[in-house]
Design goal:
Length: 436
């Protein structure tokens, strides 16, 4: 029986999940691969935090080099996260001829263009199914199941924390701040939630999916990123009344003019499937020219879902190992020499429908002033909504536009903000009426 010797870097939530699966499902994995996946060593800065997990003969060490540089390790699993020392450790592992499995989306989004050629040069596998959407096997789908398709669009809910917050804001009628505190108390949000609520986590995932779908190296600088901090309970309420849900979507589109990569709060029709994805769940929708639109739904984070994806990559490596195969499927779908850089469409060129929210003084002529500015910027309106009267406080003025460019929206709102009757910074949210 062939044996694949595994070393794990990191013993946090995901690391423990990986170790538990390897120790408890060894017989099943051996049946499915024809290879014994033997966990040799775990390296962690805090080896004393073993808890109640029985490791048997598995070595637990605080020396990371005992995994990366050891001759008795064939494949390195990296679940420590962050850019450093993860990047240096994985580069060292690849140069030493060790295969690598990682869940590190930030590292791959920022430095995948360097790590993949290094893996190829050293005839090593670099696998990262767990880096995007947890238990959803979306990377394998894009690389293999949809390989015959030209992908022109993918979009999805890529961050469970944001989806939970937006779901709870709607269901409870609560503010962003109140729901965030609740999410932190329940363990759905970090003490510092910036990576999640500011859209960075979703952007890391989006750039990896787009690279695989479009056949390019990931370039994180190309992604337009907006988070959900400015989504108010007023926006949630109005979206619901108008037949929409607000979701933080990652959207990647490709056409003859270039590529759009954006993470942003988005109004989607309540009748769409993406609107029905609630709580901490993720979903990804992919449109291929032959397959049409396909949907992938599941838990996007957590110990077991993420560990499941990590071990799935180990299974793939073991199967390749058994038949003496390396690099059967390229990391970003195409061979390195066939990867291309695509022109990125400027934000100003994006065209679509928009939801606008203004806080204005309740007096005659205000609506006329606002619509005059919009008309001067060639923006036509599909709907106008206003409720409530107040002699002293601002009242919300809600508008939905017909299709226009982002440039026109930003120029118009900048001018509208200068009107005497407008008492707060105007807000806008893009609408995607055609999502499924």
């Amino acid at each position: 029986m062939q044996e694949l010797r595994v070393g794990v870097l990191g013993f946090g939530v995901v690391g423990r999940g990986v170790v538990e699966l390897l120790l408890t499902q060894g017989a099943l994995l051996q049946q499915r691969t024809g290879v014994r996946l033997r966990l040799v060593r775990i390296a962690t800065r805090t080896p004393s935090r073993n808890g109640d997990l029985a490791l048997g003969e598995v070595e637990l060490t605080d020396d990371l080099q005992r995994v990366v540089a050891a001759e008795d390790i064939d494949v390195v699993v990296e679940v420590i996260g962050g850019l450093e020392p993860a990047r240096s450790l994985l580069e060292q592992a690849l140069r030493s001829g060790k295969h690598v499995v990682t869940a590190n989306k930030a590292l791959l989004a920022m430095h995948g263009a360097d790590l993949v050629p290094l893996a190829v040069a050293n005839r090593c596998e670099l696998m990262f199914e767990a880096a995007v959407a947890g238990a959803i096997p979306i990377i394998k789908v894009l690389r293999e199941s949809l390989a015959a398709n030209r992908i022109d669009q993918l979009y999805g809910i890529l961050n469970g924390t944001c989806n939970y917050i937006l779901t709870e804001m709607r269901e409870r009628g609560s503010s962003f701040a109140d729901v965030l505190r609740d999410a932190q108390a329940k363990g759905f949000a970090e003490a510092d939630p910036s990576f999640d609520v500011d859209g960075i986590d979703a952007a890391h995932k989006l750039v990896l999916l787009a690279a695989i779908a479009f056949g390019s190296y990931p370039d994180f600088s190309q992604v337009h990123i907006e988070g959900i901090r400015h989504v108010s309970d007023v926006d949630i309420q109005w979206a619901t009344e108008m037949g929409y849900r607000i979701k933080l979507l990652g959207i990647a589109k490709q056409d003859a003019e270039g590529v759009e990569l954006r993470v942003q709060p988005t109004l989607v029709p309540v009748s769409s499937m993406v609107a029905s994805v609630e709580g901490v769940y993720n979903a990804v929708f992919v449109r291929g020219h032959a397959a049409g639109t396909t949907m992938y739904h599941g838990r996007g984070a957590g110990e077991r879902p993420t560990a499941s994806a990590v071990v799935a990559d180990l299974v793939e490596i073991a199967r390749n190992w058994r038949v003496g195969c390396v690099g059967r499927v390229a990391a970003f779908s195409c061979l390195s020499e066939n990867l291309r850089a695509f022109p990125v469409r400027a934000t100003d060129e994006w065209r679509g429908e928009y939801y606008l929210r203004l806080a204005v003084a309740d007096r005659p002529g205000v609506l006329a002033e606002v619509t005059r500015v919009l008309a001067e910027h060639q923006i036509s309106l599909d709907a106008i909504h206003q409720k409530g009267r107040s002699a002293v406080a601002a009242v919300p003025l809600i508008m939905v536009t017909h299709a226009t460019t982002e440039r026109q929206i930003r120029l118009a709102l900048r001018e509208i903000e200068g009107l005497d009757a407008v008492q707060e910074t105007p807000r806008f949210i893009r609408i995607e009426p055609s999502v499924v």
